[in-house]
Amino acid sequence: xIILGIETSCDETSAAIIGDGIEIISYTITxxxxxxxxxxxxxxxxxxxxxxxxIIPVLEETFTKAKMTKNNIDAIAVTIGPGLMGPLLxxxxxxxxxxxxxxxxxxxxxxxxxxxxxAWLDEGSPTKPQFPLLALIASGGHTELLVMKxxxxxxxxxxxxxxxVGEAFDKVARALDLGYPGGPxxxxxxxxxxxxxxxxxxxxxxxxxxxxxxxxxxxVVHELQKHQxxxxxxxxxICASFREAAFDVLIAKTMRAAKEYDVKSILxxxxxxxxxxxxxxxxxxxxxxxNDQISLHVPPLKLATDNATYIAAAGYFLFDKLALxxxxxxxxxxxxxxxxxxTSLEI
Length: 347
Ligand code: KG4
Ligand code: ZN
Prior knowledge:
This protein has helices spanning 33-37, 44-66, 85-102, 111-116, 165-175, 182-192, 214-226, 232-260, 276-289, 301-304, 309-317, 319-322, 330-334; strands at 2-7, 12-19, 23-31, 75-81, 106-110, 133-138, 143-148, 154-159, 265-269, 295-297. The protein is an alpha/beta fold. β1 and β2 (12-19) form a beta hairpin. The radius of gyration is 20 Å and the shape is globular. The two termini are 21 Å apart. The site of 5'-O-[(R)-(carboxyoxy)(hydroxy)phosphoryl]adenosine has 19 residues, from α5 and α6.
């Protein structure tokens, strides 16, 4: 089954054509991030305006690269939330129109469930994820641990009580004047720094699987204020110490949950999974702390951050549950609305 995926939940405009949920036939991503960079973050109206400009060229390019036409496509999967209302609307209304004109089923996809499905697209991984699995979603908007018994059976066991981990990276980077998004730039500085500061690891010993990143961010900002003006080395040391504290908590909770729920695979997804350092730390933790039957899946950089490949993959695995057929469900398709606040439990 060949599925066209469309993702427009924030500043990326992306389309992808995916075979059987695992094969990337073609994909295109463009972003308005350079324009947004000027403002130090994503401005919803600017993002929405760019989505309208980019969506048709991105679709055309995706079909051209795949050497396919609409006749090759079995269905269209689109992000319905969470995200920014304006950008989500552009993707959804485009998909509703295509579904109607092309008479192809529409599959509305939760962006968070989408992220998890990037693990099935990783050509570098020798195995596909096995159920039951533990998924850590670590992005700019979410920090969640989910246990999945199948593609459609999932339980949220913990989430952040305040800031998301990626948000903490972005806020610390902003306090350091490093630009937006903060994660990748902060990671470069952290690689050059030493772990000289012992920042707090909020909730690391709490018996639940929840997270908190606001206190860590505040501790780092206070430390910065003490050291003004910062030398380059001091800045890099603070970046390294912050990153270590942030990842220590992610790893401790993920390892404990993997044991308690006796999972066969661990998946890390979301933009923060783009961190090579997190992947290294998690790999070591899995090798030393868990039995070697457990597989760790961290998507490569290009699949970790927002893009349409995993929206199409999720569309394939959730087709039976979610697909709406324009021949009989047209009213439902036309009345679909984006849900900017969708949570991971709402498939
Ligand atoms: O999943 P994503 O692309 O968008 C959301 O749905 O939020 O995640 C973006 C987040 C940003 O907060 C960004 O700073 C963070 O992922 N990020 C990183 C790294 N690369 C991106 N955080 C830490 N280390 C990185 N290398
Ligand atoms: Zn995302």
